[in-house]
Amino acid sequence: MKYQIVIAGFGGQGVVFLVKVLSICAGEKDIAFIGTENHGMSQRGGAVSCDIKIGDFKNPVIDKNQADMIIGLDKNESLRNLAYLKQDGIVIVNSDESYPDIPIKVVKADVNKKALNGELPIQGLNVYMLGVALKNEKNFPFTVEDVKKAIKKINPKLAEQNFEILEKAIKEN
Amino acid sequence: MKQTLMGNEAIAWGIVHANIQMVSGYPGTPSSEILKTVQKIQSDLKLDMYVQWATNEKVGFEVAYAGAISGQRSCATMKQVGLNVASDALMSASYIGNKGAMLLVCADDPGFHSSQTEQDSRVFAKFARIPVFDPSTPQDAYDFVKLAVEVSELFETTTMLRPVMRVSHAREIIHMNSETNFTKTDNRFKRDIKRWAAVPRAGRLSQGYDQLKRIEDIARYNYERFLKPQLDDLKGGKLLIITSGTADGFVRETLDDLDLKSDILKVIMPYPLPVKELKKAFDKYEKIIVFEEPYPCVEEQIACEKVYGKNTGTVHKIDEMSKEGVLKALQNIGFYEGKNIYEAPKIDLGFEVPARPPALCPGCPHRDIYYSIMKVFKKSKSIYPSDIGCYTLALAQGAIDTVLCMGGSVAMASGFSIANPDKTVVATIGDGTFFHSGIPPLLNAIYQSHKFILVILDNSTVAMTGRQVTPERFHQAIDIKKIVEGCGIECLEHNYSHNMHENIDFFKEVKKKYEQNDTPTVVVVRQFCILDNPRAKEFVPNIYAKVDEDKCVACDQCTTIYKCPPMHYNEHGKIEIDPFLCAGCAGCLEVICPTGAFEIDKREK
Fold it and tell me: Which residues contact B308 (CB under 8 A, 6 or more apart)?
């Protein structure tokens, strides 16, 4: 299996956390993977994008026209990374209805609105979007159980809260 | 044992498993997590090691090097521009050599992700005549630490490990030692004045001859151990591809994607190369192409008519490696004639996606201080040299005119004040950078009576690279104010306030002092880093802001010279504050908006 995911957002949204979750999913199942994260200039509010390539890959960067999925924690950041997506790839994005009409499969979830309505804390945005991805992509390389195991490994204290968010996303999308 | 690790974490484990007992370095992206992770392993496993941040890279190198001379395995960590600072020590250490291993880990940043230059530390190793290993993956990085330590002790030379950002910040499953049986030696310094204190001319000339012989011996070792086993398996043909570092992974994936086959020689020690032996191997090929980054280090050593690379214009010369770059080079050399598969049809969105450039964090006191400086020292009447750190991002506010290198702001302020006597020069530097290399130029400015203002932004942390401790935080006896006073001048002090007028009033006082002074006017502003918890919690008032749309006249003041990320225009053409990004710092509630449109958001957070 080979599956390449770009995760895009801005500093503070938990982009790197998602890469860690997926890395641990792969590590725990002993599936080869290589990924990369952009540290440095962006602290809070600057663009951040991370790549993870699951399967037998030899460099961590996703080139243009190669990704199977973009997980966009922010609408504009997902659009900015569209060139990396294959034409039959899928965009999983935190966006309202204003997302532009593009010739690519897009699954939207308006998590900002949910957070404003008090349905979930905004800190749960990343895990929620991972739930949306799990639900809507049948070729997603990991199962809900794999993801839960990884989340628990990273932070057992917040695991229960994150599981709730993950399940809420799976139920709602 | 298998572990999922980031490259820098893999290097840290390599350091521990190679029984390196002294580690000293200076933070800098993409190298910072190495020393931090060794510290964590040391604390988790209660290992008897010295692992500490130094005040700068030169100090870091020298602390470690004395350990190596004493016969103990030692390591210095830094980023590529840090090596410029440490280079004085390195150049000399290369002549003198060492007893215990001296590992220099120097992380490069092809593509300028977070560095002011794209310089290639492999070329620096060549300049210094020390061997260098170039890992292509985190696994290589872990393995090569051990190799480098072996080579360093065998040949008694500083040995470099040069990961690039895509190794340091890559993540994969690492196969590593199952157990950590850390053992340290009790070797001690043995007096050998002729060697450790060799002086020009005779002493150093003789060490120079030794150095030349040593590098020849290492080139032969490189051939026998790393290159010959690969060369023996090569078949020959139209093209030989030589790779170094990350280029190897990019090349192999591209060949797979394009369904092409070629012999590949992976150079793991790009300097010193056994040039004669390599050129002999070229007989079996029509052409040789070299993929490496960022400079043509291997290519220049083996240059001849058959060899293609950056210098021949075949491979891209600047910016990061990409599979598209490899594909184009293979097209250029006539090895691939198909289409560019790394180009997707462009999707026309009908609008430009707004950029989200790096910015100071919401709630960062730097923003308010820069705003106050600009308010008091008008742009048209001032020059603003600044330095390397988070605060460089005040560029977005138009509050910075020059950025050169670590500590450069202070001496540049001297120079600007001499060259532009009609302008007020207001330099800014962070506390970490001031300790790193800001003190000698301040001494220079005081004894030569240069007239400018130096604002030291003291958040008591090296914030940009992940909030490493600064000397004053580690040891409270060290105080910036006392250092400045010790240099013989007054140091004005201000505690950052979220009431903007208090910051502005303070700088008005600074301006008065400056007008009377014939020496530098030095100011320290006591701040905090908004991400530095739990310390930040003591300072942030948790007063959130919102916009009164009726008052907002869309004048752009807040989005241009205040520039806080939560502020953006909404569909009504009015400013809106992203409630999820607002940090509750209250900085914008005063002065910023000419019509007073920012007001307190009483919603519960």
Answer: B287, B288, B289, B290, B314, B315, B333
Topology of domain B234-332 in CATH is: Rossmann fold (3.40.50)
- How far away is chain B from the Cα of A14, in angstroms, using its nearest Cα? 13
Say what the pLDDT of residue B354 is: 86
Of B211, B17, B207, nearest to B127 (Cα)?
B211
A34 contacts on B by Cβ (under 8 Å): 137, 170-172, 249
ipTM: 0.96
The CATH number assigned to the domain with range B2-197 reads 3.40.50.970
**Among the partner residues B252, B344, B581, nearest to A64 by beta-carbon distance:** B344
pLDDT at B381 over 70: yes
Q: Where are the domains of chain B?
A: 2-197, 234-332, 365-538, 544-601
Write out pLDDT tens, residues B289-341: 999 999 999 999 999 999 999 999 999 999 999 999 999 999 999 999 999 99
CB-CB neighbors (< 8 A) of A117 in chain B: none
Query: What class does CATH assign to A3-172?
Result: alpha beta
Whether residue A44 and residue B361 make contact (CB cut-off 8 A), yes or no, is yes
Query: How far is Cα B176 from Cα A27, in angstroms, rounded to an integer?
Result: 14
Q: Which of A6, A1, A2, A3 is nearest to A83 (CA)?
A: A6
Q: If DSSP codes are grouped into helix, strand and coil, which group holds residue B97?
A: coil
Q: Is the pLDDT of residue A89 over 70?
A: yes
Domain boundaries, chain A: 3-172
Considering chain B, what is the average pLDDT of its residues?
96
Render pLDDT for B3-24 as a digit per residue (tens, 0 to 9). 999 999 999 999 999 999 999 9
User: For residue B561, what is the DSSP state?
Assistant: I
Enter the DSSP assignment of B364.
-
Quote the DSSP letter at residue B200.
T
